[in-house]
Amino acid sequence: MAKTGPIRVLIVDDSALMRKLLKDMIGASEDVEIVGMAHDGTQALELVAKLHPDVVTLDVEMPGRSGLEILPELLALWPVPVLMISSLTQEGAETTLAALAMGAVDYLPKPTSHQLSQMRAASDLIVSKVKAAAKCRVMRQRSASRPLATALVPATGVAVSSVTAVSPPRMKPTTGGLARQALCVVVGISTGGPQALDQVLPLLRPPLPPLVVVQHMPGTFTGVFAKRLARICAVPVLEAEDGMRLVPDQILIAPGGKQLSLSGHPPLVKVVLKDDPPVSGHRPSVDVLFRSASQSFGAGVVGLIMTGMGRDGVDGCKAILAAGGTTYGQDEATSVVYGMNKAAFLESAITRQFGLTEFPDLIRALTSGS
Fold it and tell me: Which residue, 356, 60, 89, 97, is CA-closest to 226?
């Protein structure tokens, strides 16, 4: 049964000023109700158990038990969408990314004391993030070191249990099975992405085609994100730089605040970074990457569109299909937000859907071309 009534929010922050500021901004929406405020981690756990809120905003840095420390216990107590309140610094990025990998669904920037006016001006964004969080599916943490359960892959290379053919209206006929051997794999992902990628990328092993990822994330986060993944992956993971050449057995993460496109044709395809305006509401944009990949690799490109809000990547998937390439969309059951991938499904922009646990088998099949 769909939820009715306002979204019930619990605010957790050690600063009385920040609690009041968040209460004033979030509570100004008639669709949202502030049901409680906690000043530390212990009180937060007590109020979560008592109030069962729809969304929790959780300060990363608090005296005593920090937001990061209580997050696993909070989610075990009540699997609620959590928005981390974080500073957009390298230290803040590392902590926030750890929280997102643990199951927090998103984050909000925490200003310094002299930036409070800017946070007031961003109240619409904060309210929209709270409303979006209320629609998120909470995924429990899974350690990257623990193998995901995978289905058997038959000769077609398609995992029968979760990679299923889709046939929405206007879907072009396919030849069945997977695409020919991929020359490049491009991935578009947003809300829920850090947790998803933290689970599946460490399971990839060489040989792999070049893999380029657009994860919607600010520039202060993407470099830290790439380094975090590099520590747990079996292949190099790097934040992409202008002029960098695409090579096999390497994963590139698009830097936040830049538009990343690809230029050239195999075997010499390079990264191009520009300060162009947002496309589909984002910089980097999945659409920009996917369109350029279709021009560089033609039928040899495979696009994967995964969990996230909005419709960035839909037009890019269509460009890949028009060039003879193949597209896949993460399914609803394993997505934190069935948004970008849902839009691609409804607009016939994907060839097949896949479950998150089938990601490694899918990449392996695309590598072999089976």
Answer: 97
CB atoms closer than 10 angstroms to residue 5: 8
The pLDDT tens digits of the residues spanning 313-367 come to: 999 999 999 999 999 999 999 999 999 999 999 999 998 999 999 999 999 999 8
Q: CB neighbours (10 Å) of residue 329?
A: 29
- Superfamily for the 164-368 domain: Methylesterase CheB, C-terminal domain (3.40.50.180)
Q: Which residue has the tokens 């021009």?
A: 295
Token code pair at residue 56? 């929790």
Rounded CA-CA distance 248/174 in Å is: 27
CA distance linking residue 33 with residue 22, whole number of Å: 12
Q: State both tokens at 357.
A: 């646990």
Topology (CATH) of 7-133: Rossmann fold (3.40.50)
pLDDT at 172 over 50: no
Domain boundaries, given as residue ranges, for the chain? 7-133, 164-368
CA–CA separation, 341 and 145 (whole Å):
27
pLDDT tens track for 156-170: 233 323 333 333 333
- What's the distance, CA 74 to chain centroid? 22
Structure tokens at 35: 């049901």
CA torsion 268-273-278-283 (nearest 10°) is 90
The conformation of residue 249, written as its DSSP 8-state character, comes to S
What's the Cα-to-Cα distance from 350 to each of 41, 211, 330, rounded to whole Å? 43, 18, 10
Same fold for the pair 7-133 and 164-368: yes
Residues annotated as catalytic are 190, 216, 312
3-state class (DSSP) for residue 3:
coil
Q: Give the model confidence (pLDDT) of 96-128 as tens digits.
A: 899 999 999 998 877 555 556 666 566 777 888
Handedness of CA 189, 190, 191, 193 (dihedral sign): positive
Distance in angstroms (rounded) separating the CA atoms of residues 356 and 341: 13
